[in-house]
Amino acid sequence: MQETFTLPRWFRTFCYVAAILMICMGAEMVYLEFTEIKGQNIIFMGFAFFFLAWSMYAYTRLKLVLGPNTVRFSGGWRPHHFSWTDVTSIDMARVGRYREAQLTICYGDRKLRLDRSFFRKKPFADILDRVERYAPAGVFTAGYRQITAELRA
């Protein structure tokens, strides 16, 4: 049975609304540049708002699908699609200021990195459970075992 992991619905709704507001503010900046305030170069702020709106929309499109045979991560710059038999190693590390867990699945010559800060605590624990259930037993590193023991304690 495949399971899909995405952002929570309330946060996706918030990002959609914020993206619409960013587009409106960007359009207002472009309008002001060409009609009211000439020569102030605030058009660049408009482009920044358009970029923020696109980023918020793209962030909501990220989706991880874990099945008994395959893994799919879509919606980003580099989508991933591979079989569990292609996995060469699975590692976990603590990264960032708050030392959040980051799962790294290596397959072929590519790596899929999944951050605990993106998926929240409970869904990330479910992802770890699925990974341990579906992945071959010999691919887990000592760092993975140590950090998962810390997360479950």
Structure notes:
The chain is an alpha+beta fold. It has two domains: about 5-60; about 65-150, PH-domain like (Roll), CATH 2.30.29. The protein has five helices and seven strands; from the N terminus they run E-H-H-E-E-E-E-E-E-H-H-H. It has helices at about 10-35, 45-60, 115-120, 120-135, 140-150; strands at about 5, 65, 70-75, 80-85, 85-95, 100-105, 110-115. The chain has a four-stranded antiparallel β-sheet, covered by helices on one side. Strands 5-6-7 form a three-stranded antiparallel β-sheet. Helix 1 (about 10-35) packs antiparallel against helix 2 (about 45-60). The protein is elongated, with a radius of gyration of 20 Å. The mean pLDDT is about 90. Keywords: Membrane, Transmembrane, Transmembrane helix.
